[in-house]
């Protein structure tokens, strides 16, 4: 198996090292693991692409490249340049430093890479490690992902028709709970949740010493459940969450109402 790995935390991020180990396990001795990752951190860029300027790419070592662009740019660079003649069988994105559950999914560059791979027709899985009191003090904060990652991916790959969907291909969002590996309670297939009664993303103004105003993005509490049978709730209950996704944003449950109103 030929596997492409990328992330949004940058090519030197510890989570990418964890993902490389997971991918190496999956690929086997006859397989290949290729890295095309952002040269610098790209957290929160979502599915952004560098449409208005070129992306410089540099080879850091055997099968290891850094691109001055977003995670989606890295997938495009891999599929249309680095691996153009030998496309990957699977794209893995992560392991993200922090969860991409609930509404975080919409901001995530880790997810953005998986979306782009799916649009390009390549099976893709995004992986993220929830942080919390249960793992923040560990020597390896990615312990749950490192220990359980290959197992979860194998279960997804073994599922009949795992990535089949028309016209938008399926991809998967996997989040590991904020616990040591030995305390993970299992795996749950769940939907994307929403953390209610939180402020969500916000913005705070600060005045610099030169008198200029700067605005800083602020986050919301992450230890908030997201409703029954959803990702953040499963993670906070000690389970690995697996959520099937596609890039079709249509609200199908509202189409008939809209048709009646405007047609």
UniProtKB/TrEMBL annotation:
Its cofactor is a divalent metal cation. It holds the Pfam family SurE. Keywords: Cytoplasm, Hydrolase, Metal-binding, Nucleotide-binding. Transmembrane segments: none annotated. The keyword Nucleotide-binding applies. Residues 3-196 form the Survival protein SurE-like phosphatase/nucleotidase domain. Binds 1 divalent metal cation per subunit. One of its GO terms (cellular component) is cytoplasm. It is an enzyme of class 3 (hydrolase). It is found in: Cytoplasm. It catalyses: a ribonucleoside 5'-phosphate + H2O = a ribonucleoside + phosphate. The keyword Transmembrane does not apply. A divalent metal cation binds at residues 8-9, 43, 96. One of its GO terms (molecular function) is 5'-nucleotidase activity. Its EC number is 3.1.3.5. Belongs to the SurE nucleotidase family. NCBIfam families: PRK00346.1-4, PRK13931.1, surE. Nucleotidase that shows phosphatase activity on nucleoside 5'-monophosphates. This is 5'-nucleotidase SurE. It comes from Gymnodinialimonas ceratoperidinii.
